């Protein structure tokens, strides 16, 4: 009995491991195919612009609301926490660094992993289930160029730009809360933010979002292109993409942060 249970557990772990390698290999192969076809004509610029509107501009309101709430909460937490030690005046510095380096890029990427990732996955999966992908191939057109590349480029453009908006809105929300709740003058807040932040702080945050966007788009497209038959497969694919993207963002953020601290900020 115990041997049978152990055998089942080992089999389950083995299946999960093989599935993980399959996903990694499939996404790697798709990435190589994207690189091969990215610089060869025809270039579907119009499709990329349409995706940029759908993925970027239509996500702006969600990003603005979330960034405003995040910046306000961070100012409150830092303010009341530091007030016990008489360090309220350090709130602008701490909030500015936290928003530009971590909270802005990560929160925005997690939000768009749910919206962009699920949207791309469900759309591509629906096309796969209804055999539209096969029809595109039958017409002699590459589905990579018409479907994958426009969504990838739109994601890699939209996410850094939306992160830039999120950084600004987050700092603005923190400034308002600092002025009304912590008695920190707005001019003092702005001066301390400008004094603290450097171009490297903005660069590292934006660079992270490019990596996040690449994985979100590639994973969504690959899982969508490999969706099983039926509408149930579309739902399963959408869920897997959101989960996988969120896990990747959190794990890769650690390694990217460590890398930037050793290269861009060696003084730390």
Question: How would you explain this protein's 3D organization?
Answer:
With 268 residues, this protein is mainly alpha-helical. It has one domain (44-263). It is built from nine helices and no strands. The protein has helices at residues 2-38, 45-55, 60-83, 91-129, 132-138, 143-181, 186-196, 199-225, 231-263. The longest helix is centred in the middle third of the chain and has 39 residues, at 91-129. It starts with a helix and ends in a 5-residue tail after the last helix.
Share of helical residues: over 70%
* SS content category: mainly alpha
Largest sheet: none
Element-level helix/strand string: HHHHHHHHH
Total helical segments: 9
Number of domains: 1
Give the rounded overall mean pLDDT.
Answer: 82
**Mass-distribution shape:** globular
Return Rg in Å. 22 Å
What's the end-to-end separation, in Å? 55 Å
Spans of at least 5 consecutive residues with low confidence:
none
Note the beta-strand portion: under 5%
- Count of extended strands: 0
In short:
By secondary structure, the chain is an all-alpha fold. The chain is 85% helix and 0% strand. The protein has 9 helices and no strands.
Which structural traits does this protein have?
85% helix; mainly alpha
What's the topology here?
Layout: H1 2-38, H2 45-55, H3 60-83, H4 91-129, H5 132-138, H6 143-181, H7 186-196, H8 199-225, H9 231-263
Helix pairs in contact: 1-6, 1-8, 2-6, 3-4, 3-6, 4-6, 4-7, 4-8, 4-9, 6-8, 8-9
């Amino acid at each position: 009995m115990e041997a049978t249970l152990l055998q089942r557990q080992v089999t389950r772990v083995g299946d999960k491991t093989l599935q993980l390698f399959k996903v990694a290999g499939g996404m790697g192969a798709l990435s190589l195919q994207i690189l091969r076809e990215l610089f060869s004509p025809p270039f579907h610029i119009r499709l990329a612009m349409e995706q940029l509107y759908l993925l970027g501009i239509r996500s702006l309101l969600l990003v603005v609301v979330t960034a405003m709430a995040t910046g306000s909460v961070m100012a409150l937490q830092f303010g009341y926490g530091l007030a016990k030690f008489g360090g309220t005046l350090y709130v602008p510095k701490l909030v500015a660094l936290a928003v530009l380096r971590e909270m802005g890029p990560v929160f925005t990427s997690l939000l768009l992993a749910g919206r962009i990732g699920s949207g791309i996955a469900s759309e591509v999966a629906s096309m796969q289930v209804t055999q539209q992908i096969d029809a595109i191939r039958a017409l002699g057109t590459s589905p990579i160029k018409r479907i994958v590349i426009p969504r990838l480029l739109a994601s890699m453009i939209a996410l850094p730009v939306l992160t830039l908006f999120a950084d600004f809105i987050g700092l603005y929300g923190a400034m308002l809360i600092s002025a009304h709740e912590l008695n920190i003058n707005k001019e003092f807040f702005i001066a301390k933010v400008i004094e603290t932040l450097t171009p490297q702080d903005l660069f590292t945050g934006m660079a992270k979002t490019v990596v996040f966007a690449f994985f979100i788009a590639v994973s969504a497209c690959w899982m969508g292109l490999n969706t099983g038959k039926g509408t149930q497969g579309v739902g399963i694919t959408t869920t897997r993409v959101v989960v996988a993207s969120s896990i990747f963002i959190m794990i890769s953020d650690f390694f990217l942060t460590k890398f930037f601290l050793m290269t861009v900020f060696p003084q730390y």
